[in-house]
Task: inverse folding
């Protein structure tokens, strides 16, 4: 472990000059803040992979719950880790992108885990003619799968789960980093941008990649800034037909919500009141 500036700690094989993969095929990046209770399972699922050509980078936001002590224990298994204050999940992931050296980038949440030790071996058993490779994820311990093939139209309504995606590093060179203006759904915007590129050729593989924790921040909390800009984003990156489809769906949802609020619920209350009076 080494200190490098006020409030900053770093470590890992790269710091000691002992990284095993000089030019790794895959860079796995985890952003964490106060994840001592769940992070060890995440780390174990990465370092236990049978595929060897990867590096593991962990960006900690200055945790005070024992996370740094956990990282120190795995110092010889992680290629690079740093602990310092940051401006949220995507700021941390952008740091990881800058530090990465892999041809492909993958982002694993601090309470998520690869589905099995052979996962990377399965995904990269053959060369892929794509810049965005994605599979499916398991929703926590519910047994439910989330994924399938995405089109531009489907992407207007739902995002590809980030724990199912492998991004070619070229995409970040072309499109830039995640937009930190959107604290919880910047990856959705990035995916729209990727689908707007002809050369990205998104490809779905019928493989369950990871177990996605339902306790993650984006599962619990809305992103109002993203919601405000959602329709303009669709128009800009996915095209007019997708925009009209999304607008129509949005208006239908609003009408349905208003019917429930101003018609169905008052009528139900009136029915209950009438029934009570008649007793």
Result:
């Amino acid at each position: 472990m080494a200190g490098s500036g006020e409030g900053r700690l770093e470590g890992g094989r790269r710091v000691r000059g002992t990284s095993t993969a000089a030019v790794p095929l895959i860079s796995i990046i985890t952003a964490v803040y106060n994840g001592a209770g769940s992070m060890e399972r995440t780390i174990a699922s990465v370092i236990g992979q049978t595929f060897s050509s990867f590096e593991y980078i962990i960006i900690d936001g200055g945790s005070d719950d024992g996370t740094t002590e956990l990282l120190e224990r795995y110092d010889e298994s992680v290629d690079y880790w740093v602990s310092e204050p940051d401006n949220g999940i995507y700021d941390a992931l952008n740091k990881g992108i800058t530090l990465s050296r892999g041809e492909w980038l993958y982002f694993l949440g601090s309470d998520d885990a690869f589905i099995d030790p052979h996962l990377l071996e399965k995904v990269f058993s053959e060369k892929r003619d794509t810049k965005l490779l994605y599979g499916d994820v398991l929703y926590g311990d519910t047994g439910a799968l989330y994924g399938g093939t995405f089109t531009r139209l489907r992407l207007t309504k739902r995002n590809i789960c980030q724990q199912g995606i492998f991004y070619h590093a070229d995409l970040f060179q072309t499109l830039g980093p995640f937009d930190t203006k959107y604290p919880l759904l910047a990856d959705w915007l990035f995916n729209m941008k990727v689908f707007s590129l002809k050369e990205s050729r998104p490809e779905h593989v019928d493989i369950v990649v990871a177990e996605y924790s339902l306790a993650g921040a984006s599962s619990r909390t809305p992103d109002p800034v993203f919601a405000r800009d959602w329709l303009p984003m669709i128009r800009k990156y996915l095209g007019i037909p997708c925009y009209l489809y999304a607008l129509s769906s949005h208006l239908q949802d609003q009408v349905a919500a208003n019917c429930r609020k101003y018609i169905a619920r008052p009528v139900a209350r009136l029915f209950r009141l009438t029934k009570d009076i008649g007793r």
User: Anything to note?
Assistant: Residues 239-279 form one domain. The chain has a mean pLDDT of 89. The two ends are 75 Å apart (CA to CA). Residues 131 and 171 are 7 Å apart (CA to CA).
